[in-house]
């Protein structure tokens, strides 16, 4: 069946960090393999420019320079539905832009960013979006900012939990949107992987990851890991070149942005992370033991608590505990059965194939054609009188 026969899917993400976009990219790849045409929409592009800057740069600045502020915001929005409702109301003027971002013949809209739900959810509930709305929750915590009226299905990772008691949600347990390359990387020998990155061929290596922005207490983490006897540190600083330069005094293996993370993970013995997000899921997918240390505020600490409780990671609350954990040669990895859950792309395809979704897609296409004709008639009605007036002169 051709892509045109299966229809279109719109995937809405946001270039805030890398986790939301990476999940969206993997979902796009899987849906394309199933014969869908996929349109990617950056949620931030729907916002006015100053607000766009605030969502990205101010968020990054708060995480880096005032993490306590982000922790407080995460807690407040987690306890009060009113704050989320205010956010939803503030996005109301953008519903027209959101509707225009969904082209004709679309069968479903999928979000991988929580604020997108607060825009597209009410649009779906009011009828402005006729096709199903599905969201893929990138964290292990279903925070209230993910929850919005109008969302048809929530795709959540195994062990994910709602932050607060909310309305009845249609939550489906799915596998992480992690590239198959992380499982395939197990076919690369460790010695070959280490040679690719210029790493020592012998000894235990701990990979410290800091996300795309290099946020958190990374310098302290690298120093504490480096103090563990018999363990050498490799750190990925993302796009934070300033951090990378500072870390050179702690380790000679300070890397910037890495395109081939599957091979790098094959080269190391353990991952030390601080957010419980995409990198953690990637490490678990390729069979690496994961230690959470100095988790970032907000979703980082919330994810860390759940991951440690269900035994997916080891949470080290202090430098001494970190030393004991990393000194243990028998660290085990576990994916908690996540990779055996349903494929989120398959679930989206199932939703998009519902008769109601197909009918809504056709109705939306016809309405789009009528809207285009109406706009053309309106333009002609404006232009023709001026043409006649010019002719009379």
Give short descriptive properties of this protein.
single chain, 393 residues, alpha/beta, Rossmann fold, 2 domains, 6-stranded parallel β-sheet, 17 helices, 15% strand, globular
Describe this entry's structure for a reader.
- The protein is an alpha/beta fold and 393 residues long.
- It has helices at 3-6, 19-33, 49-65, 67-79, 81-90, 95-100, 114-126, 181-184, 190-196, 218-226, 241-247, 261-267, 278-285, 299-309, 319-326, 344-352, 355-392, and strands at residues 8-13, 37-42, 106-111, 133-136, 141-142, 153-157, 161-162, 171-174, 204-209, 231-236, 254-255, 270-273, 290-293, 314-316.
- The strands form three sheets. It has a six-stranded parallel beta sheet with strand order 2-1-3-4-6-8, with helices on both faces. It has a six-stranded parallel beta sheet with strand order 11-10-9-12-13-14, with helices on both faces.
- α13 (278-285) links the parallel β12 (270-273) and β13 (290-293).
- The chain is globular and about 65 Å long.
- The model has no long low-confidence stretch (mean pLDDT 88).
């Amino acid at each position: 069946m051709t892509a045109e026969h299966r229809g279109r899917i719109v995937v809405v993400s946001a270039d805030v960090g890398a986790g939301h976009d990476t999940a969206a990219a993997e979902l796009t790849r899987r849906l394309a393999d199933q014969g869908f045409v996929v349109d990617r929409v950056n949620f931030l592009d729907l916002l006015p420019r100053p607000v766009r800057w605030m969502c990205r740069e101010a968020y990054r600045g708060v995480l880096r320079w005032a993490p306590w502020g982000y922790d407080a915001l995460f807690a407040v929005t987690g306890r009060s539905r009113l704050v989320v409702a205010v956010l939803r109301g503030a996005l109301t003027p953008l519903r027209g832009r959101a509707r225009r971002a969904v082209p004709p013949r679309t069968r479903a809209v999928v979000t991988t960013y929580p604020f997108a739900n607060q825009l597209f959810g009410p649009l779906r509930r009011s009828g402005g979006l006729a096709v199903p709305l599905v969201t893929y929750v990138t964290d292990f915590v279903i925070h209230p900012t993910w929850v919005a009226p109008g969302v048809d299905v929530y795709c959540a990772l195994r062990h994910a939990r709602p932050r607060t008691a909310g309305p009845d949600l249609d939550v489906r347990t799915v596998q992480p949107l992690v590239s198959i390359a992380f499982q395939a990387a197990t076919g690369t020998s460790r010695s070959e992987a280490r040679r690719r990155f210029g790493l020592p061929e012998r000894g235990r290596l701990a990979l410290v990851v800091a996300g795309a922005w290099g946020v958190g207490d990374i310098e302290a983490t690298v120093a504490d890991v480096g103090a563990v006897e018999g363990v050498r540190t490799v750190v990925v600083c993302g796009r934070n070149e300033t951090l990378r330069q500072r870390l050179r005094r702690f380790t000679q293996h300070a890397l910037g942005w890495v395109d081939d993370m599957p091979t790098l993970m094959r080269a190391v013995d353990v991952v030390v992370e601080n957010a419980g997000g995409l990198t953690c899921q990637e490490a678990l997918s390729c069979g690496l033991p994961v230690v959470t240390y100095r988790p970032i505020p907000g979703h980082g600490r919330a994810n860390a608590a759940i991951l440690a409780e269900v035994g997916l990671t080891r949470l080290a609350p202090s430098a001494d505990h970190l030393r004991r954990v990393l000194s243990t040669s028998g660290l085990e990895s576990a994916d908690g059965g996540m990779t055996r859950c349903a494929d989120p792309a398959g679930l989206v395809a199932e939703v998009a194939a519902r008769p109601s979704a197909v009918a809504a897609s056709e109705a939306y296409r016809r309405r789009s054609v009528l809207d285009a004709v109406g706009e053309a008639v309106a333009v002609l009605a404006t232009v023709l009188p001026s043409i006649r007036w010019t002719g009379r002169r």
